[in-house]
Amino acid sequence: MGLLTLNRANEQGTSNRGPGISPRLLIALAVALFSIIGYFMNTSYNPVTEEKQHISISKDQEIALGLQARPAMERQYGGGSRDMRKVALVKEVGADILAKTAASKTDYKFDFHLLADPKTINAFALPGGQVFITEGLLKHLETRGQLAGVLAHEIGHVVARHSAEHIAKQNLTQGLTGATVIATYDPYDPRTRGNAQLAALVGSLVTLKFTRSDELEADKIGVKFCAEAGYDPRSMIRVMEILRDNAGKNGMPEFFNTHPNPENRIGKINQIIAQQYPNGVPAGLAK
Q1: How far apart are CA 18 and CA 16, in angstroms?
Q2: Which residues contact 286 (CB under 8 A, 6 or more apart)?
Q3: What is the DSSP letter of 115?
Q4: Whole-angstrom Cα distance, residue 287 to residue 277?
Q5: Cβ distance 155 to 123 under 8 Å?
Q6: Residue 282: which H helix or E strand, with range?
Q7: pLDDT tens digit sequence for 38-66
Q8: Could you report the per-residue pLDDT of 189-218, keeping only the tens digit for each?
Q9: pLDDT tens digits for 65-93?
């Protein structure tokens, strides 16, 4: 066998071995595996929802996060309302719900705030029990029961630990997104830039899906808590109608940024009420 033949044989043997797994792919796999294991190993049973949840922070940490974020949220909406009569109303209705529902049996330190912003239509809850409603939304509500529906829904987010779930999900999503970027993005190859954008898009879609699921669960808890506190849960339907009717008058209500379209919610809430009260809503509840 001649020298040329040997060289060709060596070249063929080298090409048949193929490339090994790149270090970048190994790192990506390690990051993804670490993120997945960390997410699924951190579980906690929620006695309110009667479900196991993937939670990576304690209730004390949730409370601390909410208290830490409270001043910034108040500043964003013009501070606390100076209308002491309305402030008292919000706190009274919130206290009604707490006193007669499972929310009072949790470790959360609930506090109810009326924000001074007269134009923004919004309500939201921070982790740990800080619940807010703007004057812009309150002025459109017609009854005490409708206010109870808004607050019960936000209390539902707190006791269902949705913020804590989102933190865990966000950590998982960021880990998997990072792993995808590491595995597919080559800074020296412009063609791979779209891969990083695709990974970020996938991450945002996962978060959006969970947000809609959270809203449905908060509605279920809100319906239950309203009735237990002596308020007609059908008032929540009227709240959705009010939000729908105010869409477009002064721009899209900020409420829609974090809550699904009210048209869809009306149908869902009707279904929830029918499931929880197949024989009809109990009589005598405040509207």
Answers
A1: 5
A2: 143, 144, 145, 148, 230, 231, 232
A3: E
A4: 16
A5: no
A6: none
A7: 556 778 898 888 889 888 888 998 899 89
A8: 555 555 555 445 444 544 444 477 888 999
A9: 899 999 999 999 999 999 999 999 999 99
Distance of alpha carbon 178 from alpha carbon 9, whole angstroms:
42
* Residue of 109, 111, 115 lying closest to 128 (CA atoms): 109
Known catalytic membership, residue 217: no
Catalytic: which of 96, 135, 154, 165?
154
Sort residue 112 into left (φ over 0), alpha (ψ -120 to 50) or beta. beta
Tokens of 86: 């309305």
Quick one: 107 exposed, middle or buried, by C-beta within 10 A (0-12, 13-18, 19+)? exposed
Half-sphere exposure of 109 (CA within 13 A, CB side): 10
> Could you tell me how far CA 159 lies from the centroid of its own chain?
12
Could you tell me the residue ranges of all domains in the chain?
23-276
115 contacts 86 by C-beta, under 8 angstroms: no
Query: How many residues would you count in the chain?
Result: 287
* Active-site pick, 219, 228, 232, 254: 219
Structure tokens at 79: 């501070």
pLDDT value of position 244: 85
Cβ proximity of 91 and 112 under 8 Å: yes
Q: Is 219 a catalytic residue?
A: yes
Q: Nearest Cα to 175, choosing from 35, 56, 29, 40?
A: 35
Q: What is the pTM of this model?
A: 0.76
Check residue 131 and report its DSSP letter.
E
| Cα 239 to Cα 170: distance, rounded to the nearest angstrom | 30
Helices (H) and strands (E) in the chain, counts: 11, 5
> Residues 172, 203: contact at Cβ < 8 Å?
no
